[in-house]
Amino acid sequence: MLIEIAKGMAHTLRVMLRKPITVQWPEEQKPVAPRHRGRHILHRYDNGMEKCIGCELCAAACPVGCIYVGAAENDPANPVSPGERYAERYEINLLRCIYCGYCAEACPTEAITLGPRFELADYRKERLVATKEDLLEAWPNMAQSRRSPSDHGAGADQTGRASEVPGLSPRVAWEDGIDSSASPRPGEYGIPSHVPRVISPDEAEPR
Amino acid sequence: MTGIIWVAGGLAALSALGVVFSPQPLYSALSLVLSIGALAVIFLVLNAQFLFVVQLIVYAGAVMVLFVFIIALLSPDREERFRVDARFAIGVTFAVGVTVAMLLAARNGITFNGNGFRAQQIGQASDPYHGFAFDQSDNGLVNTAGNVQSVGGQLFTTFLLPFEITSMLLLVSAIGAVYLTRRRRDPNAPVRRERALAREPQLEEDRIEVEVR
Amino acid sequence: MIASFSDIFSVGRLGTDGIVVILVKSVVIVLALATAAAYLTLAERKIAARVQLRIGPNRVGPMGLLQPAADAVKLLFKENAAPGGRDKLLYLAGPAIAGGAAIFAFAAIPVSGLTCVGGQTSGSGCAGGYALHWDLIHVNVSLLFVLAVTSVGVYSLFLGGYAANSKYSLLGGLRSSAQLISYEMAVAFALIGAVILAGSLDLEKIVLMQHDVWFVVLQPMAFLLYFTAALAETNRLPFDLPEAETELVAGYHTEYSSMRFGFYFLGEYINMVTVCSIATLVFLGGWLPLLPFIHSDWLGGLVGVGWFLAKVGALLFVMMWLRWTLPRFRYDRLMSFGWKVLLPLGLVNIVITGAIVGLRAS
Questions:
Q1: Could you tell me if B54 lies within 8 Å of chain C, comparing CB atoms?
Q2: Cα(B2)–Cα(A76) distance, rounded to whole angstroms?
Q3: Structural domain includes residue C17
Q4: Which reaction does it catalyse (chain C) (predicted)?
Q5: C333 in any annotated domain
Q6: Assigned domain for A181 exists
Q7: Do A9 and C47 make contact, defined as CB atoms within 8 angstroms?
Q8: Average pLDDT over residues A164-176
Q9: How many CB pairs under 8 A join A and C?
Q10: Structural domain contains residue C35
Q11: What is the pLDDT of residue C45?
Q12: Is residue A205 situated within a structural domain?
């Protein structure tokens, strides 16, 4: 019996000398998988036009009902999206969202997808209703939001504070006068200012 | 100096009173532990170091633990407070009288003489409260009086027979306790499966055979 | 007439040491033990983490070194939730006896050899100068003293379990105290072999008798028996069923919170230190050096203290290593192990040792 105990202790000792597998968050970050469903991104085409045509299929597909799309007619002289309509207001309640990805599956133009960002905490609930300015990709630096193994991040959150939006979403009964530039700014409240690195398809799974 | 003996003795006496007068039986037992501890301190101060540790290990640490277990588990109820009546008065008078008589007897020098108490060979010990001086060296006879070598030597030579008889007694009592508390099982009583089937005849039909490979 | 102060106080060191040294030693012992117990909790967590391939506390202070302070502050500020039907006196007495007995047992443990301050060592005394003994009190049966105080410490478990007016506490307390008093015998029997070799129950003399070979070499079985029984004495895995989280909630200290629980915790870790200290003193040569060219009496005996602490630390590490390696004993198997395996093996050890010593003497 002593031999078995000694063997067990030898094994434990060997494990003690191994390097721990802890990832020391937030200094180190664990990379996310390519199909990780984090905070949403509204994409553009390469020429700068928004992909979203304001069809509201995502809002219909959402099981929770956290998407609000306010569509508007495209000005023919200055089209925002290639089509008749574009989304003038696009809001997602990040608190209600269950990050299931049904909106991304439903979208006919692959405008809305879910990106790698998952550190979305804030102290103020109203800040967690993401508006179009937060979700829309930056342009012309769109390489940032493509699914590439780059850690520069995705979405409009890299550009600083968004401009004012006309009014609040009708689904959200907040008081007037609240700054509805919703999504928490990186660097505030200890929210890390970088975005998780996405694993490229030819990379092995993180251990 | 003697201050410690006074304090320890007083504590021993007070806890002894606590043993008798405590309404809760568990408090009585714990007061007895305290009393034993105080006596052990007196042994230590009088240089009987082995007796000190043995008192704590055996008496306070084993015998009284047993007492405390039993009292706590069997939970005798809280007694009513003692009433001051004729019985109480007789008891107190008797106890106080015996105590005073003992103190006077010891004070006036009725002590053992001869081989039983070796200290007397060194100093004058007819009156133990005064005139008592003893040898402090490791070879001093009093120092060995409570010491391990002395006790052990006597135990295995002069007092070997009582020692062995006592250990035999303990062994017999342990065996007796185990035997008396064994679970008695009627050899004709049905085993578990039959008892279950008697309750639930349906079980027999629901039985399936499972092959384990 | 009692000739002098030192006559009646030749026990302990009150006659030779004087009240100032006694007070200083007491304060040092209490502070050192409390700090040791606190940092043992951190060591436990770090070692547990390494065995589980993680890092352990490393946020509070560099490498987590202030974590015990944070834990202590947390314990102090926690609410003292106590059950309503408790026995108020015994509920407080439990942790008090636990902490108190644990610290008191350490009083007779010498951490280094005799140091002559300003004089010369001559034989077993000091010629001139002041003889500094590194224990607080000295009885010539100091090994038994430690055992006696730890056996009085059993009351803390039982009273804690009983006073809390909860059946889980009572059962846990009962099991804990029964386990402790059973393994006390195994501890004693394991130590007797070494005592026979040393010819004394005085811890200082036992260490000095190991100056050419340590008793662990001469009595390997006794060392293993003692270490195993000591694990059971301190309620450590694999013998910690009475306080295992998955079993009786938390056993005897279920109904304790805040600093009262802290005291039980303190008592348990200080008991670990005491038990490992006895193991080093009796089997591993105490303060005697492992590398013979680093003498123990350098730096006024502090190197001896260093050797002592190194050995105690190694044994504590082994205790924690075992905790995260072995599964837990079931309680009935625990009791039968103590009575049916450790005790007879201890007796066999005593018989063999006694026979060899007796035959060599004749």
A1: yes
A2: 111
A3: no
A4: a quinone + NADH + 5 H(+)(in) = a quinol + NAD(+) + 4 H(+)(out)
A5: yes
A6: no
A7: no
A8: 35
A9: 34
A10: no
A11: 93
A12: no
Give the DSSP letter string of A12-69: HHHHHTSPP----TTTS-PPBPTT---SEEE-B-TTS-BS-----HHHHH-SS--EEE
Domains identified in chain A, total number: 1
Residues A195/A36, Cβ–Cβ less than 8 Å: no
How many whole angstroms from its chain centre is CA B138?
30
Asked if C11 and B47 count as a contact pair (C-beta separation under 8 A), the reply is yes
Whole-number Å distance between alpha carbons of A44 and A47: 8
Within a domain: A60: yes
Q: Evaluate whether C164 touches B72 at the Cβ level (below 8 Å).
A: no
- How many domains does chain C fold into? 1
pLDDT mean over B143-163? 76
Alpha-carbon gap, residue A52 to A43, rounded angstroms: 8
- Nearest CB neighbour to A8, from listed C50, C54, C325: C325
Compute the nearest-CA separation of C186 from chain B (Å): 14
| Token pair belonging to B97 | 């009288």
Interface test with B, best of C92, C141, C150, C343 (most B CBs within 10 A): C141
- Looking at residue A142, its pLDDT comes to 54
Please indicate, yes or no, if residue C162 is contained in any of the structural domains. Answer: yes
Any idea which residue has 């008991």 for tokens?
Answer: C271
Q: Do B56 and C201 touch (CB under 8 A)?
A: no
* Interface pTM, i.e. ipTM: 0.86
Residue B42 in contact with partner chain C when CB distance is under 8 A: no
What range does the domain containing A64 cover?
A: 22-169+187-198
Segments forming the whole domain that contains residue C275: 87-361
Mean pLDDT of the B144-156 span? 71
Q: Does the predicted TM-score (pTM) go above 0.90?
A: no
CA-nearest residue to A4 within chain C is: C326
Q: Which among C139, C158, C181 is the nearest to B49, CB-wise?
A: C139
Helices (H), chain C: 5-8, 14-17, 19-51, 67-77, 88-105, 142-152, 154-163, 167-198, 203-208, 215-218, 220-233, 258-283, 302-323, 331-337, 343-361
* pLDDT per position as a tens digit, C141-199: 889 999 999 999 999 988 888 888 887 788 888 888 889 999 999 999 999 999 999 88
Query: Which residue numbers of C have CB closer than 8 Å to B's CBs?
Result: 1-3, 5-11, 87, 89-90, 139-141, 144-145, 147-149, 151-152, 154-155, 158-159, 162, 170, 174, 177, 181, 184, 201
The whole-angstrom separation of Cα A64 and Cα A56 is 14
Check if B132 contacts C (Cβ < 8 Å).
yes
Locate C333 and state its tokens.
């198997």
Q: Which band of pLDDT confidence, cut at 50, 70 and 90, is reported for residue C224?
A: very high
Cβ distance of C155 and B33 shorter than 8 Å = yes
Cβ atoms B33, B67 nearer than 8 A: no
For C47, phi then psi, to 5°, come to -65, -40
Separation in Å, CA of C105 to nearest CA in chain B: 12
Instruction: Name residue, tokens 């314990």.
Output: C75
Q: Find the mean pLDDT for residues A63-74.
A: 90
The most confident of the ranges B35-44, B103-112, B122-131 is B35-44
| Cis bond before residue C238 (omega within 30° of 0) | yes
Helices then strands, counting H and E runs in chain A, come out as 4, 5
Q: Is residue A7 part of a domain?
A: no
